[in-house]
């Protein structure tokens, strides 16, 4: 189920070399991922510290805030450090806190892309991901403006989020994709089949909510392993994901510089095969 010593970098699209421990910026928003983050100064510090600590993959979305999160990233980090890859997403309406409504209307997607370019202050989005496939609109329609944006050089790479293998294959008939972002962690492995498919196909797999350390039945095992490495349970959960598959890119989020450093230290933990297997059961 796992490989020899994992590489800590991954080439997105076979070209952009990124550190597999990245940063997800969703928490740097108001309550319910809505509105501006309460302490903007601290949020800027966290983003700057992430990049200073070697993070070169940051994940955001038009829907975070909405819009506020992308602007915050540009305010904190623009002009961007050479090699920093910023991934964003489009395709959600946000009527209010914790309220997410898929919108695959081509005009809406086009405005998402144009808005993201503007807010992030870039000419090209490194990785643009369709946040959700809208069940009410054919994905072929939704992706028309995405294909146009790729052809115009406004988007370098395209990814998908919360999709099954059939949906990925349907989209790949329209345009190349390089990544899939689905819910996956030590405790929730419902997308195991998608992870294995992406690994076989040379696509990146970006688990969202990677820090969940799983069911109570694992608690004692994790605690035991954490003690051995003088690590937190969250670090062990991340180390397990890094070992699970070499195409996994991690984007743990946090509002705290201390937690940020803690998360990044997970890259130093190399679980043994035995530890990995015992957590995988």
Topology of this protein?
Blueprint: E1 9-12, E2 16-19, E3 23-24, H1 40-52, E4 57-59, H2 68-77, E5 85-90, E6 92-93, E7 101-102, H3 106-120, E8 125-130, H4 139-142, H5 144-151, E9 155-161, H6 165-172, E10 179-181, H7 192-201, E11 204-205, H8 216-229, H9 233-244, H10 257-264, H11 273-280
Parallel strand pairs: 3-4, 4-5, 5-8, 8-9, 9-10, 10-11
Antiparallel strand pairs: 1-2, 6-7
What does this structure look like?
This protein is α/β, with parallel strands linked by helices. The chain has one domain (9-212, 245-269): TIM Barrel, CATH 3.20.20.100. Helices cover 39% and strands 15% of the residues. The protein contains 11 helices and 11 strands. The chain has helices at residues 40-52, 68-77, 106-120, 139-142, 144-151, 165-172, 192-201, 216-229, 233-244, 257-264, 273-280, and strands at 9-12, 16-19, 23-24, 57-59, 85-90, 92-93, 101-102, 125-130, 155-161, 179-181, 204-205. A 7-stranded parallel β-sheet has the order 3-4-5-8-9-10-11, with helices on one face. The chain has a two-stranded antiparallel ribbon with strand order 1-2. The longest helix is centred in the middle third of the chain and has 15 residues, at 106-120. The protein is globular and about 55 Å long. The N and C termini lie close together (11 Å).
What is the strand arrangement across the widest sheet?
3-4-5-8-9-10-11
**Spatial separation of the terminal alpha carbons:** 11 Å
CATH superfamily: NADP-dependent oxidoreductase domain
Instruction: Give a count of the beta strands, DSSP E runs of length 2 or more.
Output: 11
By helix and strand content, what is the structural category? alpha/beta
Instruction: Determine the mean pLDDT.
Output: 95
Q: Proportion of β residues?
A: 5-15%
What's the structural domain tally?
Answer: 1
Quaternary state reads: single chain
The whole-angstrom Rg is 18 Å
Uncertain regions: pLDDT < 50 for 5+ in a row?
Answer: none
Helix count, per DSSP?
A: 11
The CATH class name reads Alpha Beta
**What gross morphology would you assign?**
globular
Which fold name fills CATH's third level, the topology? Answer: TIM Barrel
Percent helix: 25-40%
Order of helices and strands: EEEHEHEEEHEHHEHEHEHHHH
CATH architecture: Alpha-Beta Barrel
Query: How many strands, which pairing sense, and closed or not: the largest β-sheet?
Result: 7 strands, parallel
